[in-house]
Amino acid sequence: MIASDNNIQRISDQFAQFHADLESATPPWLTGLRREAFRRFEDLGFPTTRQEEWRFTNVKRIAETVFALAEIPAPLNLGTISPFVLDEDYLRLVFVNGHYIGDLSATGATPHGAVVGSLSAALADRPKLIEDHLGKLASDDHACFAALNSAFIRDGAFIHVPRGVMINQPIHLLFISTDSSSPTASYPRNLIIAQRDSRATIIESYVGLSDGVYLTNAVTEISVSENAVVDHCKLQQESTDGYHVATTQVRQQRASQFSSHYFSLGGQLVRNEVDVILDGEGCECTLNALYIADGDQHMDNRTRIDHAKPHCNSHELYKGILDERAKGVFNGKIYVHPDAQKTDAKQSNRVLLLSDDAVIDTKPQLEIYADDVKCTHGATVGQIDETALYYLRSRGVSEDLARSLLVYAFANEIASALELETVREHVERFLLAGQSLTEL
Amino acid sequence: MLEIKNLHARVEEAEILRGINLTVNAGEVHAIMGPNGSGKSTLAHVLAGRDDYEVTNGEVLFQGKNLLEMEIDERAGEGVFLAYQYPVEIPGISTKYFLKAALNSIRAYRGEQRCSAKEFLKLAKDKMQMLDMDKSLLDRGVNEGFSGGEKKRNEIFQMAVLQPKLAILDETDSGLDIDALRIVADGVNSLRSAGRAIIVVTHYQRLLEYIVPDKVHVLADGRIVRSGDKTLALALEEKGYALVEGERETVPSPA
Fold it and tell me: Is residue A16 a contact partner of residue A151, using CB atoms and an 8 Å limit?
């Protein structure tokens, strides 16, 4: 891997420059955090398929591409971003190439004491709060990309919901990568803290305006305290040649609820990790996802749910639709710690293969160290159900339309579980368009 | 309307239909009865076009056209409708979307104008009222989580919306309680008309008390072994299929 070794040297130079530019304006703890993270990245290097966690995903294309740090571009107008604005009534934080753009954002009035804003602003305004939480959840000990993100922490979203506060308006975090003549990388870093008895709904969306190669390396840390409810939705709609590598790291406290709805609809090479630690009794955790790939797209989904305490429930349903030469990976681990009696964990991965060349590697893993638990997992890989196809056709629907309807129906199980109507409609429109179907 | 001549069909190596002859005219209701395994459902699915069955001999003319050469969806376009014994659940697509797609596919096949969303909703709601169905069903996934009875009622609802020329009801009475049976039968009866033929496939005579057939045929071992009027169904009810036991292998099927 000579090329990527050279590249690590380039990234090292890039980091030195980044560091030098920001050092004077950075508190020492953050300087330390970045340096520490970069050292870890250098130790780890880019992963190879010889490593179990990366067995099915070759990141050579990322490791060997020289990415410049993405700059703030010339100002974008609202018209450019309007196709990506889900709902005017949502709170909205817009990031272009990883930098917060206040002019495009709509932070409105948030309930007393709540903070919905950029990480860069919070670092200036609330350094202690950030210091206490940043990097505490995203364990990047073994994760090269998360370490790299930590090394280049600069901006992202910061959401703080104090005890007992409910933010009723959904919060939309919109990350846009703009066009560039050569490959660029951005490292959004989001920190979401939901204190005791609080509630928030957050949607992250990632889109690209670029035809060229770029990398989004994002990390989101979410702390869900006792009795808090956090609904998280992520729409990955990077452009055709975009690379997207991201980790969402969640820690749940007693009797909290967390749901994640992940839609992987774009990008060339995508790796998405969701890690949840159920660290208090009585937690509820739902992880749903839909990944749709065709052409030569590669989508890797890795999840890990740690049942660390008793009486927690987790439900996980990942569905994939792969066409042409697309490749999908599902690697889902449920780890039940010795103390976690009365765990109820369900995991399911279902994949629809629409061509002979599409490939799915699926690896469900249950590691159970408690004896009084209910854990199930299942994986199905198949083609379109012939019986359903016959049923539709016998009602007059042509074979092509029947197939489209069945692909849509398969995907829509995940979309229809979305409680947010606007987001649900957004996804449904995408799914219908993907099958050349008219609006419902 | 429908002429079946010497129809033979098999699934894998087993020959299920062994020379069916049947003529159904427009305006008529025919009942096809028979013991389990006699080939009743196979006949229904062969007419609808299921490709698990291989037709090895014979022909089927529907309004003078060769039905067996048509694609499954073409048959529906021509006006054939099968109400399934086991309707398929399709979560993720609403009954409304599915049925509107079906109706517009059939209209497109016939060169008719598309049905607008508004027109469709009115049509659907009228038919649901007739069948005493809850309107919320339109937004639910096709047959998703329905009871057996609800599924059957949904089949008749689809039939009422699509207005086929030939309706084949495959064991529509199974799984229905007496109230549901009456409602479903009323729905079917409301579709009886001079231009439409209906074939009722059933194991029991019960349904025929509500949907009174013009002709009754008894199917056994892949052949029609006896035909008659509605009294034949009553005789079968009384004596069971032992009535036709001796006729299975020996009596040639009536044309």
Answer: no
Query: Where in the sequence is the domain holding B48, given as residue range(s)?
Result: 2-89+164-250
Q: Which residues of chain B does A412 touch, with a Cβ-Cβ cutoff of 8 Å?
A: 92-93
| Residue A265 reports pLDDT greater than 70 | yes
In a domain? residue B111: no
Q: Is there a domain that residue B177 lies in?
A: yes
Check CB contact under 8 Å for A390 and B50. Answer: yes
How many distinct structural domains can be found in chain B? 1
Taking only the tens place, the pLDDT of each residue in B32-66 is: 998 888 999 999 999 999 988 999 999 999 999 99
Residues A156-200: pLDDT tens digits? 999 999 999 999 999 999 999 998 889 999 999 999 999 999 999
Pairwise CB contact (< 8 Å): A440 & B101: no
What CATH number does the domain containing B68 carry?
3.40.50.300
Q: Report whether pLDDT(A277) > 60.
A: yes
Distance, in Å, from the CA atom of A5 to the CA atom of A245, rounded to the nearest integer, reads 20
Question: CB of B229 within 8 Å of any CB in chain A?
Answer: no
Q: Which of B97, B99, B114, B169 to mutate to test the interface with A (most CBs of A within 10 A)?
A: B97
Please determine, for residue A227, whether its predicted confidence score (pLDDT) is greater than 80: yes
How far apart CA A149 and CA A126 sit, in angstroms, is 21
Nearest Cα to Cα of residue B214 among B195, B194, B228, B193: B228
* Residue A5 pLDDT exceeds 80: no
> How distant is the Cα of A414 from the closest Cα of chain B, in angstroms?
8
pLDDT score, position A141: 62
Q: Do B92 and A408 touch (CB under 8 A)?
A: yes
Give the C-alpha separation, A271 to A300, whole Å: 5
Nearest to B92 among A390, A397, A416 (CB): A416
Backbone angles phi, psi at A58, to 5 degrees: -95, 120
**What is the structure's pLDDT at B255?**
42
> What's the pLDDT tens digit per position in B163-217?
999 999 999 988 888 888 998 899 999 999 999 999 999 988 889 999 999 999 9
Q: What is the CA radius of gyration of chain A?
A: 21
Q: How far apart are CA B90 and CA A409, in angstroms?
A: 7
Whether B72 contacts chain A with CB within 8 A: yes
Nearest-by-CA chain A residue for B116: A440
Under a CB-based contact definition with an 8 Å cutoff, are residues A272 and A318 in contact?
Answer: no
Using CA atoms, how far apart are residues A97 and B117, in angstroms rounded to an integer? 43
What angle, rounded to 10 degrees, do the helices at A2-22 and A28-44 form? 180
Residues in chain B, overall count: 255
Cβ within 8 Å, pair A391-B93: no
Nearest to B102 among A387, A395, A411 (CB): A395
Q: Smallest Cβ distance to B105: which of A388, A398, A412?
A: A398
Comparing A130-139, A187-196, A267-276, B144-153, the range with the smallest average pLDDT is A130-139
Query: Which strands make up the sheet holding B29-33, listed edge to edge?
Result: B80-83, B166-170, B197-202, B29-33, B215-220, B223-228
The answer, yes or no, to whether residue A2 has pLDDT greater than 60, is: no
The single residue listed with the structure tokens 């998280």 is: A232
Q: Is residue B76 situated within a structural domain?
A: yes
Chain B from 2 to 61: CB within 8 A of any A CB: 48-51
- The CA distance from B23 to B2, in Å, is 6
Using the 8-state DSSP alphabet, how is residue A88 labeled?
T
Sign of the CA dihedral with A122 first, then A194, A233, and A78 last: negative
Residue B120 lies in a domain: no
**A391–B92 CB contact, under 8 Å:** no
